[in-house]
């Protein structure tokens, strides 16, 4: 195992790394996700979660008969 230690210190020119292009792609994707989240929060803030009450309707949605059944 000790004979492999000097090999680890050498720089491999054939090694594939993400480099600058990988960083740029990641940064653009991160900015896109940030923009989408900001837009989603803005749109969710406009949503009214309470339903308007209908005249004469009970909260369960069933209407009463006039006879009170």
If you had to describe this structure to a student in words, what would you say it looks like?
The chain is mostly helical and 69 residues long. The protein has 2 helices and no strands. The mean pLDDT is 78.
Which SSEs are present, and which pair or pack?
Elements: H1 5-9, H2 19-45
Mean model confidence by pLDDT: 78
Report the major sheet. Answer: none
- The number of helices is 2
User: Share of helix among residues?
Assistant: 40-55%
Q: How far apart lie the N and C ends?
A: 88 Å
Ranges where pLDDT stays below 50 over 5 or more residues in a row are none
Concise structural overview:
With 69 residues, the chain is mainly alpha-helical. The chain contains two helices and no strands.
Question: What are the salient characteristics of this protein?
Answer:
69 residues; 46% helix
